From TrEMBL:
PANTHER family: 2-OXOADIPATE DEHYDROGENASE COMPLEX COMPONENT E1 (PTHR23152:SF4), 2-OXOGLUTARATE DEHYDROGENASE (PTHR23152). It comes from the Bacteria. InterPro entries: 2-oxogl_dehyd_N, 2oxoglutarate_DH_E1, DH_E1, KGD_C_sf, ODO-1/KGD_C, THDP-binding, Transketolase-like_Pyr-bd. Its EC number is 1.2.4.2. Its cofactor is thiamine diphosphate. CDD domains: TPP_E1_OGDC_like. One of its GO terms (molecular function) is oxoglutarate dehydrogenase (succinyl-transferring) activity. Belongs to the alpha-ketoglutarate dehydrogenase family. Residues 596-793 form the Transketolase-like pyrimidine-binding domain. Pfam families: 2-oxogl_dehyd_N, E1_dh, OxoGdeHyase_C, Transket_pyr. This is oxoglutarate dehydrogenase (succinyl-transferring).
Amino acid sequence: MMQQSRSNSYLFGGNAPYVEELYEAYLDNPGSVPEQWRDYFDALQHVPAVDGTDGRDVAHAPVVESFAQRAKSNAFAVKASSTDLAVARKQVHVQSLIAAYRNVGARWADLDPLKRTERPKIPELEPAFYDLSESDMDITFSAANTYFGKENMSLRDMLQALRETYCGTIGAEFNHITDQTQKRWWQQKLEGIRSKPAFNASQKKHILDRLTAAEGLERYLHTKYVGQKRFSLEGGESFIAAMDALIQQAGEKGVQEIVIGMAHRGRLNVLVNTLGKMPKDLFAEFDHTAPEDLPAGDVKYHQGFSSDISTIGGPVHLSLAFNPSHLEIVNPVVEGSVRARMDRRGDKQGAQVLPVLVHGDSAFGGQGVNQETLMLSETRGYSTGGTVHLIINNQIGFTTSDPRDLRSTLYCTDIVKMVESPVLHVNGDDPEAVVLATQLALEFRMTFRKDVVVDIICFRKLGHNEQDTPALTQPLMYKKIAAHPGTRRLYADKLATQGLGDTLGDDMVKAYRAAMDEGRHTVDPVISNFKSKYAVDWSPFVGKKWTDAADTAIPLTEWKRLSERLTTFPASVNLHPLVKKVYDDRAAMGRGDVNVDWGMGEHMAFASLVASGYAVRLSGEDCGRGTFTHRHAVIHDQKREKWDEGTYVPLEHVADNQAPFVVIDSILSEEAVLGFEYGYAGSEPNALVIWEAQFGDFANGAQVVIDQFIASGEVKWGRANGLVMMLPHGYEGQGPEHSSARLERFMQLAADNNMQIVQPTTASQIFHVLRRQVVRQFRKPLVIMTPKSLLRNKEATSPLADFTKGGFQTVIPEQNDTIAADKVKRVICCSGKVYYDLVKKREDKKAYDTAIIRVEQLYPFPHKAFAAELKKYPNVTDIVWCQDEPQNQGAWFFVQHYIHENMLDGQKLGYAGRAPSASPAVGYAHLHQEQQKALLDQAFAKLKGFVLTK
């Protein structure tokens, strides 16, 4: 006991200030204090402090007081000698030095291949910062808190080990992670090898082979296709070696599919040297002799590709996602595609499917979609088990290289710290370090299922594209680049000095050039004719038309069975009274006692689909309940005691062997979530995949996804997609931002039968259109302008018979049977909520010489059905298109041509609606009402203004 007392006494008694300092260091980072002290402080967490609180949360003074009180006990009564205290202080300072290297060592790492600036002075990395001098260098200190393989080390050896580990060509950032297991994992991995790989001769030659391929393709193209854009990888060739290592190691760890997203830089190189695209096929695209079988097509550095590569663990399927010029927008699309593949395999953790995202440095930190995608990464509905991010960091960001203009953070990767992802910065001129960093990143991802980043710091030998002259704005940088021999040459020379062959590098260059001349594969081995059992067959959806019939009605017996399952709850589920009323009403609808409302129509569409084997995935902000509280797909037990328990989803219990129904309340994001769902739908054609905007105008925040994927993905890339967008739309007096889903934008994007745009007005219509989307073997995006007030409007309900027969009506005829067709002089055409306003207005005016036709499908326009309706009224002279939206918005400018095409000779077409406006709607309720009354009056008044005559 006396010996134990002597070894610990310097912690107590008169050394309270020192104890406080030590304890403060422990609170900041438990790993920064010696193990025996850490154990003591850990134990303290379970001992009540002087004031009776948990020790971890008390102020420092009471903690020190508690130490002092314990020091008075017999067990700790011996006072420390000054020598003991001095040694203890030095040990703490050594621990602080270790912690500093783990924290900020990356800032002093050798990372810039161009060496444009001197390494910065980091005082925290110098022993003097901790009152350690040259006289302390040969003193032996405890190294028990490190993984250098020694219990004790001299300060000199300790400092060398720290600098080799954290300040070499790999700079690691992981101390921002709060999970101690993850932090110690990195400490062990890096310190155990001092961040130095130990590749054998064969592995080194393979790395050189990949560098040779990367450089060889770029130089071949630069010679053969002078001045043509290709967004060269020269200066960042180590990236190809990293991709090769990633794929091979992933296969060894059981990964069977890798989905890759990347922008332009190096994309052609990845296509040829990673995925194994035949060089001759790439050359054909440069020569403009490639087959052009798409309505629009796209440039070669936007193209996707897929192949199967042999690895030690078996075949790995690689998919490079098609990507537009909006750089990072492909990232959530890739994540959605990965999630779909995981779900198909039943891969809950991402053990078999891996997302890999390749970024540019400026785009990674600069484009908000990355922050949104990162925020999705660990949520239940969007997690993909961690993504490996590779950054081709050419240090310039388009044409900017002045650090004052690049970003507002130290590193371009700092955004990932918000999800506590580790980052490995690595010098691109050390390809072995690049490969090691990539291997460690993948191992971390597979171990902890979290995102991880490898920041390959390199340079860009040519301009942003091959027609650019970067020296115009960056003369100093490009002088350095001009003098750089190239990563491949540097590494070949290094291997020559290691005795691996003086001509090895030149021999590889000649061999690669020969392969290029012959147009042969440069990836060995690419597997031909391999098809995984999890591959999706899109052939049933090829060549189909939107007019193809679809049987969307369900038998009455099935309707009643499903509705009973939907509205029957376990006794343990305690419903809110308002929700109970909703489901009691739905039970009555299921029996046919009352008409079916919108929420029940939706639910029965979903129920009938999952019962038939079609999965349903519905996501968006507040879509479980529904923004307008009409859905209630998720029931929250009112007596639950834990936040993560007590929810019940009726649609998960409609059949014994049903397909999955998934409903997700997303984070407050539109762009990333819509991109994710587009990616999911593009990889799973046999599911109904829906994104719902909280208000239709929220789609504004996802316009890039709409423009560059949803509207044009098929004509550019041949990629079919059955995604559904539900966009609440309707003029209810709620102001400019919550009225319009910008119908006109979708109409403007509509061409080549690229999408379907509908505005259903009854419960049966939403039922049939949702079922039609998957029952019919036709896969095009479906945009639904969903209502707000109609969700509870009794006029918009439907009798049960409308669900057990019939289907989606692209045009709904006049519904008043008392109107005589030969007496009709005017036909009002409309779409959406305004129909019900028009019917009421007609009744008020007794205008029974007017028929009202609803166009429920605005695109592709249903010419045949619409013309048939017009022909019912042979004496019509005036046709009016009426809409809620301002004249320069809504459907008017687009449907007028369709209507005109189907008019008879002598008929005139006019417009009734709001005047043109720069805003979607007015913000004053009284003005809204005035406008609404005026447009309804106009619909029945004499035609004036712009009139089209047949």
